[in-house]
């Protein structure tokens, strides 16, 4: 049933008053992407694979992150480092490292499981992709740039620099 004429006018004026009043209120929206919201300290955004200051990769290809991942989103393949081609200070490095962002639930378990702080969830939340293939973040996409003063991997190093001394076994007859 239609409202009487007087009531209709009242409703229109009420609507206009709400619009007028909101013109002076602080906006709750922002001009994204020109303006971005502050990220909270414990925010978990897109992962990165970190490097040491000399450029070597922190990842040693141990797959503990993949084992800890409840969504089965991480795939790691490892290979041996050599003095001619060294990627990480450890015996091994990740020759393949992939995260399927369509599976990831950003729980951070991979970061907690990593013994070298190689994988960390940072503040990048801009994760748009247009194909399933693009949702797979490869090692090349995840690795942070080489820090200033560092060298890209693989690096050629002096023989034996990264060989860990094997502790001598105690003689059981002593
Ligand atoms: S944040 Fe969680 S779900 Fe995502 S890759 Fe790491 S462990 Fe897997
Ligand atoms: S990111 Fe960390 S836990 Fe995962 S394979 Fe590399 S070193 Fe291991």
The set of bound ligands, ions and cofactors reads: iron/sulfur cluster
CATH class of the domain at 47-142: Alpha Beta
Count of DSSP-assigned helices = 4
Low-confidence stretches: 165-174
Q: Tell me the span between the first and last alpha carbons.
A: 104 Å
Number of strands: 5
Share of β-strand residues? 5-15%
- Write down the Rg: 27 Å
The major beta sheet can be summarized as: 3 strands, antiparallel
Shape: elongated
Structural class: alpha+beta
Percent in helix: 10-25%
Strand order of the largest sheet: 2-3-5
The helix-strand sequence is HEHEEHEEH
Q: What is the CATH architecture annotation of the domain at 47-142?
A: 2-Layer Sandwich
List the quaternary state of the chains: single chain
Structural notes for this entry:
The chain has 174 residues and is of the alpha+beta class. It has a domain at 47-142: Alpha-Beta Plaits (2-Layer Sandwich), CATH 3.30.70.3270. It is 18% helix and 14% strand. It has helices spanning 5-22, 64-68, 109-113, 139-142, and strands at 47-49, 74-80, 92-100, 119-121, 136-137. The strands form 2 sheets. The protein has a 3-stranded antiparallel beta sheet with strand order 2-3-5. A two-stranded antiparallel sheet has the order 1-4. The radius of gyration is 27 Å and the shape is elongated. Residues 68-69, 71, 73-74, 99, 104-110 line the site of one iron/sulfur cluster (SF4).
